[in-house]
Amino acid sequence: MTLALLVLLGQILSGTGGHARRTHTHLLKAAETTLKRRLAEREAEVARLTELQRRAASRIMAQHVEIDQLRREAGTRIVRRLPARPYD
Question: What is the value of pTM for the model shown?
Answer without folding.
Answer: 0.54
